[in-house]
User: Fold this.
Amino acid sequence: MRHPIRLALLAAGLAAVAAVPARPASSAAAAANVKAVTGAALKKAVDSYRGKPVFVNYWATWCEPCVAEFPDIVKLYNAYRAKGVVVISVSLDEPEDKGKVAAFVAKQKAGFPVFMRSGGAPEAFIQPVDKGWRGAVPSTYVFNRQGKRVSGPVHTKLSYEKMVEMLTPALK
Amino acid sequence: VLAALRIMTIRPAHRWATLCSAATLLLPALLAAAPRSLAIGAKPENFTLSSPVDGQAYPLLEQPLPKATVVIFIATQCPVSLTYDGRMAELGREYIPKGVRFLGINSNKQEPAEEVAAHARRVALPFPVVKDPNNVIADRWGALVTPEAFVLDAQGTVVYHGRIDDSQRIEKVQSRDLKAALNAVLAGTRPPKAETLAVGCVIKRVN
Assistant:
């Protein structure tokens, strides 16, 4: 990545999102978990997760490998949330497609928050937290409790086992 | 499996550290980090690739060099790239008569030549689409997604890299960045934005 410091900040911030309690896996709760925000608000949310291992995934409903790996991210979250692991899911769908994103997230029974942009260009949304992001989805990173990126970005579909391998160094 | 069994025989106090070390060693194999893209101001080497549409070989640089050359990495399956098919065809129809050359490149490993040809014919792209076997050119240029555009000026220098415009939904487009770059090059000036962010599907590589 071209801006590791920004990523470290992202990671550090992301670590605090873990403080969000796990939600029930109902459709209504999952739909409510999709938050359309600005880049600044995303950064603020990310910063609120400081101190936790954080698994970050940029994705979109139009991205086949993203959709394919999403169930394993849900599985990962359910398996590791008791250990304080946070999953930050950031959809790069168009703002007008919030309903589509919400429906997908509900179907997946994702208990973690999903962010998407409320408007404007994608770079204005993502680059406040990751200047090095180059527009590709999926993009997956893991940050440790100190906010240091310990793995990623990975731009290919991950198996559950590979997700665990990526996450493991952050659990120290 | 053997490694896992061996780790389980390690004392618990050391097991975690061993697991972490093993994971750290495995990580490089997992990481498919983004390749570094051609910088603005770079002069890419010439190459020649074949078009599955007509079987002809097309070089990047043709002499005499055109006023501008547009290279777009495209796909036949990526929904984002497909959304831009009509816009790419329209740009070609508008700018080819003005002396701009377009070249579409398909580097996706899972999109065979026959599919590339069928797609190009169906969409009626007014420019050649070539197949990039083993994503050699995508690697050399650092192209990461589809659609992703580069513009070369009359000297073969990269003057623009990024998206076609700023929204997949044509009715929401506010910034036609590729068009603005071409207008600038044709006017003999620099593009208003030399680099923009192309959002799309990752190019599926052979490794």
Summary: Chain A has seven helices and seven strands.
